[in-house]
Design a protein that fits this description.
alpha+beta, 209 residues, BirA Bifunctional Protein, domain 2
C-alpha cells in the first residue's frame, strides 16, 4: 500500500479550507491516512538505521479551539509517548510545500547542549546538499537555503537555538507542491529515504552519539 502514496493538489488544498472543524475533517480524511502509512515505514527505517526503536507521532492539533492548523506532519522520535522533548524527524505539509526534516524545538530540555554540539560539528552542514533548507522557527513557512545561508545565517540560527529559550532549529528538504504532485510514489519514497539518510549524521550529533 505504501507504493500507492501519491501527493495530490487536494492534500495541499486542505490548508486553504476555512474553519477549524472543516479543515480538521479534511485533514483527518485526506492527509492523515498517508501520514499513517509513512509512520509505519519510517519508524522502521529509522530504527534500523539508528540502532534504537523509533515511534511515529501524527500531529493531532488537539489544543486548537479557533484557528485551523496551517501545516501538519508525522514526526518520528525514540520516545513512545511524544517527540517534542527530543530531536526528531518529520514529514509534513504546508499549503505550498512538502517538508522532510530533522528538528529540535523549544520544548527540548537539552536544546542548549544540542546546539553546542551542532556548533562544534559545523563542518557537517557543509556536506549537505546546497538545496537543503534550515530555519529557526518551526511555526513559520519561511526558510533559508544552505546555498545562501551556510556561512552566516546558519551559525546565527544555531547560536540562537543555544541562547534563546523560545527558539527552534530544523534542517532538511522542502519540496514545492508543484514538484511534489509530479513525483511518482516510488520517486517520493526514494527522495524521502535519501533525505533521511543524509540527515542521520546531523541527528547523531544532536544526541551526542
Amino acid at each position: 500500500m505504501l507504493n500507492k502514496i501519491q501527493w495530490t493538489k487536494e492534500d495541499f488544498d486542505v490548508f486553504t479550507i476555512d474553519g477549524l472543524e472543516q479543515r480538521m475533517e479534511a485533514l483527518t480524511s485526506i492527509v492523515r491516512p498517508k501520514f499513517q502509512l509513512l509512520g509505519e515505514r519510517y519508524s522502521n527505517f529509522l530504527s534500523v538505521n539508528l540502532g534504537e526503536e523509533f515511534f511515529p507521532h501524527i500531529a493531532k492539533h488537539a489544543r486548537r479551539t479557533v484557528n485551523p492548523p496551517k501545516d501538519s506532519w508525522v514526526a518520528f522520535s525514540s520516545y513512545k509517548r511524544g517527540y517534542k522533548s527530543l530531536p526528531h524527524f518529520q514529514i509534513g505539509l504546508w499549503d505550498t510545500y512538502l517538508f522532510i526534516i530533522v528538528a529540535i524545538i523549544y520544548e527540548a530540555p537539552q536544546k542548549t547542549v544540542m546546539a553546542e554540539r551542532l556548533l562544534d560539528q559545523y563542518e557537517l552542514f557543509k556536506k549537505l546538499p546546497k538545496n537543503y533548507i534550515f530555519s529557526g522557527n518551526h511555526m513559520s513557512q519561511e526558510v533559508i537555503s544552505l546555498e545562501i545561508g551556510l556561512d552566516s545565517q546558519l551559525e546565527q540560527a544555531l547560536t540562537r537555538l543555544r541562547d534563546v529559550k523560545k527558539s527552534d532549529f530544523l534542517v532538511g528538504r522542502y519540496i514545492s507542491r508543484e514538484e511534489a504532485v509530479q513525483l511518482t510514489p516510488d520517486d517520493f519514497l526514494k527522495l524521502a529515504d535519501d533525505t533521511f539518510e543524509t540527515l542521520l549524521p546531523i541527528y547523531n550529533v544532536m544526541i551526542g552519539k
